[in-house]
Amino acid sequence: MNKTFMETNMYKFLLMTVFCTMVFSNSLFAQSVVSGVVTDDAGAALAGVSVQIRGTIEGTKTDESGRYSIAGVDEGAVIVFSLLGYVPYEATVGAERQIDVMMIAEATELEEAVVVAYGTQKKESVVAAIATMDATGLRQTPASNIGIALAGRLPGLTVLQRSGVPGGEMMEFYIRGRSTINGQQPLILVDGVPRDFTALDPREVATISVLKDASATAVYGVRGANGVILITTRRGHSGKPVIDVTAEQSWQAPTRLPEMVNAYDYARLYNQVEIQNGRNAVYDDAALEHYRLGDFQELYPTRDYMNEFMKDAFPMNRMNVNVSGGNDRMKYFTTVGYLLQQGIFETEKFDEYDYDPTSKANRVNFRSNFDIEINPSLSMLLNVSGYMQKKNDPVVVPNNSGYLNDVAAYSVVMGSLLQTPSNYHNDLSPEGEVLSTALKGGNINNVPYGMLNRSGFRNTMTNQVTATLGAEQQLEFITPGLSAKALVSYDATSINQQVRQRTFQLYEAKQDPENPDAVVYEPTGTNTNSSLADMQIQSQWNLMNIDASLNYARTFGVHDVTGLLLFNRYQRVVNIQLPYNYVGFVGRATYGYKHKYFAELNFGYNGSEQFAPGNKMGFFPSFSAGWLASEEDFVRDALPWLSYAKLRASYGQVGNDNMNGARFAFLTLWNGSYESQIGNSELAWEKANKSNIGLELRLFENFTFEADVFYEKRDNILISATGLVPTGMFGTGGVFNSGIIPRINAGEIENKGFELVGGYQKSFNADTRLDIRVNGAFNRNKVLFLSEVLLPEEYAYRLRNTGYRLGQQWGYRTAGFFNSEEDIFNWYDQSGVGAVPKAGDLKYVDMNGDGVITEQDQAPIGDPEMPEWTFGAAVSFQFKGFDFSMMWQGVANRSYFLAGQAIWETYNFNEWHKEAWSQERYDAGLPITYPRLAPGSNASKLPSDFWYRDGTYIRLKNAEVGYTLPEQVSDKIGAASIRIYTNGLNLLTFDRYPVKYQDPEQNNELLYPVFKAYNIGLNVTF
To answer: Strands (DSSP E) along 788-929, which ranges?
Structure first.
């Protein structure tokens, strides 16, 4: 009985234990489960939302009703809710186990609008290679030309600033490098109309898009092969007016200048040259001592022309006021900007004629953009904009119309500063007359002071007004989704130049024959002091552009369909020349299925007056497709960390009719009784066959990655037929030399490469955000055919173009210097090129093995001047009211020919020449980095790998630090925000040039210097 009692009690105990365990476990399980419903901001359930416990692999997804349930959640854990197209949401688990979430649609993802040709598309449906940026980067760069700010920001876009003339900077833009020997500049459109954008104020720009593949540019037909840059300007919004005021003050300075030697070193090096050539020294010890001490300036001047005539810093002022606002019926944006930029050269007012030759530019920009809803089905837009620029410059070379432009005029000034040795002459005599010296030879009139201050001035007024009127009518009464749109644009630009010019008498300082310690001034040269002569030059051009289109956009369940049919007519009239005309039709059809699969067909059928009747029009089609893989359930399940993934591909054909400014090459022209041009009536445009594959990813919500691989084969390139037409007795003879042989469509060039973009964006909290974006692009072209004649067998390389890159440099490969006569005797005979070599000259390598150095030994050296690699890296950081940003930009696989007056000792000596080869330096074992100084010899100055140097560079393009004042401060003046900031341009530059005598973006030492800038600014928003 006792045993039964014990067994019974034991059984009850076990049952109670199991029961308590089950109750306790269920209680724990109930406490560890979190559930709820996820909806959008309209209350609709969201299916497929990723629900993840941060720091673990535990997670689930919402069902069709938006419900979720996730177990094993401890109190204090953080649950992350994420869905492509919505802002991620984080919830901290507390005692409450029911967590309902409302997610906000994220405009920067699938719904984001991307500017494309003739319209916009949602980001999810874009299957073309398009790079975009907003205008923030433009406003961080203190430059008068917004093109300068684009360098390094957009993958595939190469930007080179060649000069920094105020109001007339030389800019070159290339999209995916070069693919032709003809015009390569991209088509540039502002609000859909071909216009120059460099004069725009940064604060009137909204976005910039670069269209790169055939899918994006086929609709532009004969103008799309070189790529397209689209600029959109800002527009109004519904709401109370917003007033934005910005004021900036900049100080600019040249990034680099040549370093010419002082008067003493010039005299010493000049003596060295004379002695090396077996002649007596020109400057005796007394003269050298005067130059060293600088104690007799009238007869022994000691100058530093480059620095004396260049300002250490010159100012730029900018102001902008814009107002935007509107309501449901009308929205507006209007802006006025002012820019004053002074030049780098030191000038002074010439009191005798009361004129100011200062180099400077004043510019006023204005814009008003209106969007008006006439009724629910009809809307209109009106854009009116333009600028007025007054530019002042010295004449430099009077009575010569060839120098009434910035490039030619300032090249003469730069040449004079480089050519004039530091001991040649002062600026003015005691009586105020301009000084020069007969030592300048035929350039006696090219004296810096006289050209900048006594030759007169030219005042250039540029006025441009642009107007665009558009209307869009919904045609729902015909079929839903159909609309018609018309856009008419008219631009008028006029340039009026007033030239007031004069010549000036020159005098030369000489030693008084009767008193060695006195100086007399004698007239020299042929010019006299003339009065100011007046000349007026006028030019103008007008542009008319008409777009008329039918648009269709409709959704049928899971099917999205759009279509476009457009007629375009463009005409530009320059002075009294025959108009430039383009006319054509454009078509586009897109299809999307379940927001996952996309296809697009584009075509352009257009042409121009460049070609003969029958060849004027062409058809340019493209096809592209895309797959939004991240919308697939199996991708979401397998790769929950992949929030966005799209694969796209395109193929098509685009044209190029840019023949480097030449027109009507199909015509045969006569000059009296002989032909001046033999026409080719079969001429047509270049054809660019382009293919592109792209990948876009967003990883772990914060990381982005994009990659594009492209290939282009351009054929039908317009080339000279010199390699196909015989010359000589039975050939064209003198016709060949006169260059009138007809051009033909026969060239072929291929271009291929890739582009990579990576980014990281993270908002740590409401006050802290970090953005990092890096990009790199590589392209390499190859000439397939350019009508090239095969050189004789004796040549080491029998072709100069075919099989090589465009712009491939050719020259001699070197093997150091000759260091003795024995060295010269034991080397190959190279007296047939350049000059008979001497000790200190460069050795040239015998490439063809015939024992003699001739042009047959030339070989490919270095890289083309156009870079193959371009890259950029931008970082921005915000913390509370502080913000910081910087951007690095650079290029690689590029060579530059170090030559000309800044490098060679043709007229003057620079600091590099101090390390030139001489017997004394060689015997002493001192560093030798430059050949023997030989101003009259070409023995070492032939194109060679000594002069072609690596043009790779990287530079801190801009950096900015700003602070937004607290609201309580801005409230005191009724402002919404007040921000003060400082930024800079071209702050640091690193390159591999042996001497830093010019900016690495420049390709000529005589161009106006490129500048760096330091800027402070104030922005107030009301």
So the answer is: 810-811, 814-817, 842-844, 859-860, 869-879, 882-892, 895-897
In the prediction, which pLDDT does 478 show?
Answer: 95
Scanning the structure block, which residue is given the tokens 């979720």? Answer: 68
Residue 473 · residue 380 · CB < 8 Å: no
CA–CA separation, 1011 and 986 (whole Å) = 7
* Cα(335)–Cα(188) distance, integer angstroms: 22
Are the beta carbons of 315 and 251 closer than 8 angstroms? yes
CB within 8 Å of 923: residues ≥ 6 apart: none
* Phi, psi dihedrals of residue 589, rounded to the nearest 5°: -135, 130
CB contact set of 73 (below 8 Å; sequence gap of 6+): 32, 33, 34, 53, 79, 93
Which is nearest to 395 in space by CA: 333, 445, 322, 466?
445
3-state secondary structure of 769: strand
Question: CA gyration radius for the chain?
Answer: 35
Instruction: Give the integer Cα–Cα distance in Å for 551 and 563.
Output: 6
pLDDT tens-digit readout, 921-949: 999 999 999 999 999 899 999 999 999 99
CB 763 within 8 A of CB 769: yes
- d(CA 696, CA 216) in angstroms, rounded, equals 17
Angle at 415 between CA 414 and CA 419, to 5 degrees: 125
Contacts of 478 by beta carbon, 8 Å cutoff, 6+ apart: none
Q: How far apart are CA 124 and CA 297, in angstroms?
A: 73
Q: How far apart are the first and last CA of the chain?
A: 96
d(C-alpha 814, C-alpha 948), whole Å: 11
Do the Cβ atoms of 416 and 898 come closer than 8 Å?
A: no
- Cite the beta strand spans of 700-791 per DSSP E: 703-720, 743-765, 768-785
**Are 834 and 937 in contact, with CB atoms under 8 Å apart?**
yes
Predicted pLDDT at 301? 96
Non-local CB neighbours of 405 within 8 Å, separated by 6+ positions: none
Element (H, E) at 688: strand 686-699
Q: Are 302 and 422 in contact (CB under 8 A)?
A: yes
pLDDT value for 724: 64
pLDDT value at residue 740:
66
pLDDT for 1 equals 43
3 state DSSP class of 878: strand
Beta-bridged to residue 175, according to DSSP, are: 157
Sites in the chain below the pLDDT cut of 70: 1-31, 42, 57, 84-85, 106-111, 722-740
CA 1020 to chain centre: 30
State both tokens at 60.
């689930």
